[in-house]
Design brief:
single chain, 220 residues, alpha/beta, four-stranded parallel beta sheet, 7 strands, 11% strand
């Protein structure tokens, strides 16, 4: 109904889903995709508005819930593939930046749009920096402009672009490739890549990002 925009209930559901992954030892791949026409439209602005009116503790709790969802996805030891069609805005770009492989349909539209609403995207900056680099993030987080799938591929936000009707087919080819490999080797490689790249978020920086995210939401 709201193009998969996230709110407290959705975020809690994401955490519950990731909790359940640890109980499935045979699980080999996680695929994320949006129900309906769009992948994810960022935050539900009505929810953001209601959170902003609560006390500082409530704001920080909401920011931490959001940041932890992306952080956990980023550090998941199971390969993740995001299939993007339609809009992928704000927090949606953080979600796909936290995935191992991203496939976008030709009609997909992207935007790091938090500043347009007086918010800061800081809690997803670590993943976005790793995906598109500082230079590109400095442009798109400051302008909040929308860009298409080909630009997203050029800057490193997505790996593959395909016709809308080929999204599942392309994903199946990549899934098959991953399933041919040793599960432990894949899982160990994922963790080691993040460590070698120094891409694991330190707890102290994480706390700073959460507090800042909450504080800006409460500002005029």
């Amino acid at each position: 109904e709201v193009n998969n925009a996230y709110n407290g209930d959705m975020l809690s559901g994401v955490h519950e889903a990731m909790d359940s992954l640890s109980t499935e030892p045979s699980l080999r791949i996680v695929v994320l995709q949006g129900a309906g026409k769009h992948f994810q439209a960022g935050a539900d602005l009505s929810w953001i508005s209601s959170v902003g009116k609560t006390d500082p503790g409530g704001n920080e709790k909401a920011s931490r819930l959001t940041a932890e969802a992306v952080r956990r996805l980023n550090e998941l030891s199971i390969p993740t593939i995001a299939l993007v069609k339609g809009a992928c805005i704000g927090g949606g770009t953080g979600i796909i930046s936290a995935c191992d492989i991203v496939i976008a349909s030709e009609s997909a539209i992207f935007g790091i749009s938090e500043a347009r609403w007086g918010l800061v995207a800081g809690i997803i900056f670590p993943q976005l920096v790793q995906a598109i680099g500082v230079r590109n993030l400095r442009r798109y987080a400051l302008t909040c402009e929308k860009f298409g799938a080909q630009t997203a591929k050029e800057i490193g936000l997505v790996h593959e672009v395909c016709p809308d009707e080929k999204l599942q087919e392309v994903s199946h080819n990549l899934i098959d490739a991953i399933l041919m490999n040793g599960p432990q080797a894949v899982s160990t490689s994922m963790t080691r890549i993040l460590k070698v790249a120094e891409a694991l978020l330190a707890d102290d920086l994480f706390d700073v990002l959460v507090k800042e995210h909450a504080q800006v939401r409460q500002s005029a």
